[in-house]
Amino acid sequence: MHELSLMDRVRELALAQAEGHGASRITAIRVRIGALAGVDPDALRFAHEVVMADTIAAGSRLELELVAALCQCAPCGSPFEALDGVCLCPRCGAISRELLQGRELELASLELD
């Protein structure tokens, strides 16, 4: 389960930001996850509980922002959602090679006390 190592990195980043802002507690952590990032949201939630235990983020809320995969069609110029990772333009039928979004995996924000 690579979600544990991903959440461990989120923990490092969150604790560093909290320290830099003089916070005594992290109440919420918001993570942005792209549809094609290869991350299981349920496994990430479990990892959050495990990794944040015994830190100032213990008991914090994990908010996941799920980002759809969006492609840009080169021949017709249309942006379209890549459902199930299929980058076939619904307008002209061309296969897109340009992914505009959908691979995100980032710490988006924190709520600090």
Tell me about this structure.
The chain has 113 residues and is of the alpha+beta class. It has a single domain (3-112), classed as hypothetical protein PF0899 fold (2-Layer Sandwich), CATH 3.30.2320.50. It is 27% helix and 30% strand. It has two helices and six strands. The protein has helices at 3-20, 41-52; strands spanning 26-34, 61-67, 70-72, 79-81, 98-101, 105-112. The strands form two sheets. Strands 2-1-6 form a three-stranded mixed beta sheet, with helices on one face. Strands 4-3-5 form a three-stranded antiparallel beta sheet, with no helix packed on it. Helix 2 (41-52) links the parallel strand 1 and strand 2. Helix 1 (3-20) crosses helix 2. It is elongated, with a radius of gyration of 17 Å.
Q: What order do the SSEs take from the amino end to the carboxyl end, as H and E?
A: HEHEEEEE
Shape: elongated
- What characterizes the major β-sheet? 3 strands, mixed
CATH level 1 class label:
Alpha Beta
* Computed CA radius of gyration, to the nearest angstrom: 17 Å
**Class derived from helix and strand content:** alpha+beta
The number of helical segments is 2
Rounded mean pLDDT score:
95
Oligomer: single chain
Helix content: 25-40%
Unreliable spans are: none
**Strand-residue fraction?**
25-35%
| Annotated CATH architecture | 2-Layer Sandwich
Count of all domains = 1
**Strand runs, count:** 6
Report the CATH topology name: hypothetical protein PF0899 fold
Give the termini separation: 31 Å
Strand order of the largest sheet: 2-1-6
